[in-house]
Amino acid sequence: MFLVTFLSSCGKAPEPLYQEQILALGALIDITIWGVAPDAAQQAADQIAEDFNHIHTTWHAWKPSPLTRLNAHLNDTVAYTPEAELLPLLAQAKQLSLNSGNLFNPAIGKLVAAWGFQGDEPKGPPPDAKTVAALVAAQPSMEQVHLAGNSVQSSNPAVQLDLGAIGQGYAVDVAIAHLRKLGIHNAIVNASGDIRVIGKRGTRPWRIGIRDPRGPGIIASIELQGDESIVTSGTYERYFDYQGKRYHHIIDPRSGYPARGTVSVTVVHNNATTADAASTALLVAGPAQWQRVARAMGIKQVMLIDEQEIVHIDPLLAKRIHFETKTQPRMKISAPL
Ligand code: ADP
Ligand code: MG
């Protein structure tokens, strides 16, 4: 979990703030709602928990699910018609993948599986170099995933879909849309660091803390209001150690190996699905290429922390973020995105 929310009520009279933590998508989801009667808020939170669990089972990459069925039929000679609810996110993921120059590439399911990250407890050993090279040479990409009407077909047998890099952001967007439908206009949904806020906390903006990638505690905080998302991808979220080396779960589709050079990427954008795809793509892009990829994806606010603990940040986000560490980190402010 990476981002946390500050919710102390500063000793004043209690405010109409409802908070609930649910376990879904294999992770803790924090739901915070302001200005609604407790029973209505509780009902809304219950419905959102159902949304998260439904999305979890629909998109599960290794337990039998609509997605694993689609993967099994991707190369059928007659195009396969998956469960209709898969289609909107597949179309969105394809567009985001193309915009990212394939650095966010949900077609690399075989690589993710080869590294053991399609499993409950990744533990190695890493795949051998030949296996990795063959999976990279096969060049699976979303360009080869053809979406026509209700059907899906891949023209490359190497393609297997893994929406792990975007699923949580998508679930957060679905949850926010659901809250709005219920007439709730001031809330935060936080799925392990994929956050979207709507409205305000009364008269104040929502204040969000960004966890320090080096350990416990907060590296920075930011105020969000209206309709904004903040999403972080980090190499410490999922990894295994093998013979003294650490291997994390964000794979560079160009090399087939865990992306190097970056520890975490935080993206602020209006929706969480796009921000989630972008945070993965920019982590793969790394310190030398993140600005180009952010521009290609229409992302304007980014903070990237590299392996030397240098904070690379664009001027817009630099202006609104407050570092909470004792000493100001080393910063590299980029040109505007
Ligand atoms: P985090 O867990 O820190 O939020 P991401 O959002 O980047 O991380 O999601 C990582 C997951 O996405 C991996 O576990 C894997 O399932 C999948 N994945 C890994 N590398 C890529 C990539 N280059 N493009 C798309 N999906 C990826
Ligand atoms: Mg992501």
3D architecture notes:
The structure is a single chain. The chain is an alpha+beta fold and 337 residues long. The protein has a domain of 181 residues: T-fold (Roll). The protein contains eight helices and 17 strands. The strands form four sheets. It has a nine-stranded mixed β-sheet with strand order 2-3-6-7-10-13-14-15-17. Strands 1-8-9-16 form a four-stranded antiparallel β-sheet. The longest helix has 25 residues. The mean pLDDT is 94. The structure holds adenosine-5'-diphosphate and magnesium ion. Magnesium ion binds next to helix 7.
Instruction: Give the C-level CATH assignment of one domain.
Output: Alpha Beta
- Ligands and ions found: adenosine-5'-diphosphate, magnesium ion
Mean pLDDT: 94
**Which percent range describes the beta-strand content?**
25-35%
- Overall, the morphology is globular
In DSSP terms, counting alpha (H) and pi (I) runs of 4 or more, how many helices? Answer: 8
The secondary structure category is alpha+beta
CATH topology name of one domain, in short, is T-fold
- Main β-sheet: number of strands, strand sense, barrel status? 9 strands, mixed
* Strand element count: 17
CATH architecture of one domain: Roll
Cα-atom radius of gyration: 20 Å
Instruction: Kindly report how far apart the N and C termini lie.
Output: 27 Å
How are the strands of the largest sheet arranged?
Answer: 2-3-6-7-10-13-14-15-17
The SSE order reads EEEHHHHHEEHEEEEEEEEHEEHEE
- Looking at CATH, the homologous superfamily of one domain is ApbE-like domains
Helical fraction: 25-40%
Query: Which residue ranges are poorly predicted, with pLDDT under 50 across at least 5 consecutive positions?
Result: none
